[in-house]
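C-alpha cells as discussed.
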C-alpha cells in the first residue's frame, strides 16, 4: 500500500486535476494525503475545495486532507478573530472574489465588517464545515504528515496547532531525525540549500521531506509517493513530469523502504 502526498495547491485546480490523473493510485488500497493550503493565490480555489470534498465523500478512509494556515486564516476571518486573510501577501483576496464575485475594498473597520458579511453570505456552508473539520496531522506506517512542521521535533499530538500550521524552523529542516515527516508550507527555495533536490523542486534532509515546490508560473504542483519515492509533477503550461528518486535518500528514509521490502 502506497501513500501519495500532494503539496500546497493554492487554487491551481487545473494543475491539481492533471496531477490526480497522473497518479497510478489504487483507490481501494492506496492513501491520498493533501498537506493543506488548497486556497488563495490561484485561479480556482472553490474548484479545488469542491474536488477534494468529492474525493473525501467517495473514499473517506483513503483520502485525507490536512488544515493549512490559509484555511485557518479564512476561518479566523469568518469567525471575526483576525483579518490577515485579506492582506495582499496571502492571496486571500482572490479567493474572496472567486466566492463572492466582488473585489476586496477595505478603507475602514466598517469596510472589513462589510467584507466579512459579504463573504459569510456567499461561502457555501459545506465548504465552511469541511474546513472546520480538517485535522492538523495524519500518520501512517510510512510517515507523519503535517502542513508546516513539528514543534522541536515532537510528535504532532505534542506540538501546538500554531507550529503545525505556521512553523518555519531551520533546526527542524536541517536536523530532524525522528519518524519521517512530510510537510508543505515553506517553498523549497526558502529551505536550506543542502537538501534541495535540484530541478525536482522538493526537499529531503534526514527525516524531513518538504513538498511545497513554490507558487509561480514555472512552479510545479508536486505529489510524492511513499515508500517508493516516485515524484509526480504538473505545470501551469500543461507539462507533466515523473521522476524516480533514487539518489540523496538518507538512511533514515531508506529504512522506510527496507520495511516495505523495496531495498535490502
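Sequence:
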Amino acid at each position: 500500500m502506497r501513500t501519495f502526498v500532494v503539496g500546497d495547491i493554492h487554487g491551481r485546480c487545473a494543475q491539481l486535476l492533471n496531477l490526480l490523473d497522473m497518479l497510478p493510485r489504487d483507490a481501494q488500497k492506496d492513501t491520498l494525503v493533501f498537506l493543506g493550503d488548497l486556497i488563495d493565490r490561484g485561479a480556482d480555489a472553490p474548484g479545488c475545495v469542491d474536488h477534494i470534498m468529492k474525493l473525501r465523500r467517495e473514499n473517506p478512509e483513503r483520502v485525507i486532507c490536512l488544515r493549512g494556515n490559509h484555511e485557518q486564516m479564512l476561518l479566523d476571518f469568518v469567525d471575526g478573530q483576525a483579518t490577515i486573510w485579506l492582506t495582499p501577501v496571502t492571496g486571500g483576496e482572490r479567493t474572496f472574489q472567486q466566492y463572492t464575485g466582488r473585489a476586496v475594498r477595505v478603507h475602514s473597520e466598517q469596510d472589513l465588517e462589510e467584507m466579512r458579511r459579504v463573504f459569510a453570505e456567499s461561502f457555501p456552508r459545506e465548504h465552511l464545515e469541511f474546513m472546520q473539520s480538517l485535522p492538523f496531522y495524519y500518520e501512517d506506517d510510512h510517515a507523519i504528515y503535517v502542513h508546516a512542521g513539528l514543534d522541536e521535533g515532537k510528535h504532532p499530538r505534542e506540538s501546538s496547532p500554531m507550529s503545525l500550521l505556521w512553523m518555519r524552523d531551520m533546526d527542524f529542516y536541517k536536523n530532524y531525525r525522528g519518524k519521517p515527516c512530510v510537510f508543505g508550507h515553506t517553498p523549497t527555495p526558502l529551505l536550506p540549500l543542502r537538501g534541495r533536490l535540484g530541478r525536482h523542486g522538493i526537499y529531503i534532509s534526514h527525516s524531513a521531506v518538504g513538498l511545497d515546490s513554490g507558487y509561480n508560473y514555472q512552479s510545479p504542483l508536486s505529489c510524492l509517493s511513499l515508500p517508493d519515492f516516485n515524484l509526480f509533477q504538473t505545470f501551469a503550461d500543461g507539462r507533466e513530469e515523473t521522476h524516480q528518486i533514487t539518489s540523496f535518500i538518507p538512511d533514515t528514509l531508506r529504512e522506510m523502504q527496507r520495511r516495505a521490502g523495496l531495498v535490502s
